[in-house]
Amino acid sequence: MKPRGKGGAAARRPDGGRGSAGRPTRFLFDACAVDRLLDDGEAAGSLAERRDLRLLVAPVVAGQLAATPDEARRAELLALTEELFAKVAAPPPEPGRSAGDAADLSILEAARAAKAVLVTDDRKLLQIAARGGADAMAWREFRRRVVLAG
């Protein structure tokens, strides 16, 4: 299966992952997706007004954003997450894994636990999600199917 974020339950739902009036659809963003959102003022403005979506970040993602080397960029990323995102719990990293693998698995497990669609541009993480049957989509697909369709 190619890592394009297509396939999971979000893609099969008639609303294309946009949610319904009754219950907000949950999307858990990884750090690179939050970074893309920061660069897309139109999408950020649209998402700020949406009540049918619940945007989430895992603690590991918040930590990655807090470690952004550029001080101004870091401040903008953290302000964006404070404004638009709720933090969700994530399982502790598995011992013995590399830091990158542990972070990826923690993000994926946080999305599963929150019953959220993972939004990422990390090809490796998209592949892991596809192999594990988890709902995931790339930023471009999220923007097209959720932001612009909303």
General description of the model:
- This protein is an alpha/beta fold and 150 residues long.
- The protein has a single domain, classed as 5'-nuclease (Rossmann fold).
- It is built from eight helices and five strands; from the N terminus they run αβααβααβαβαβα.
- It has a five-stranded parallel sheet with strand order 3-2-1-4-5, sandwiched between helices.
- The longest helix is centred in the C-terminal third of the chain and has 15 residues.
- It is globular and about 40 Å long.
- The N terminus is likely disordered.
Give the key terms.
150 residues; alpha/beta; Rossmann fold; 5-stranded parallel sheet
Brief write-up:
The chain is an alpha/beta fold. The protein has helices spanning 9-12, 31-38, 41-49, 59-66, 71-84, 99-113, 123-132, 139-147; strands at 25-29, 53-57, 86-87, 117-119, 136-137. Strands 3-2-1-4-5 form a 5-stranded parallel beta sheet, with helices on both faces.
Order of helices and strands: HEHHEHHEHEHEH
Low-confidence stretches: 1-22
What would you give as the CATH superfamily?
Answer: 5'-nuclease
In the CATH hierarchy, the third-tier topology is known as Rossmann fold
Main β-sheet: number of strands, strand sense, barrel status?
5 strands, parallel
List the total number of helices: 8
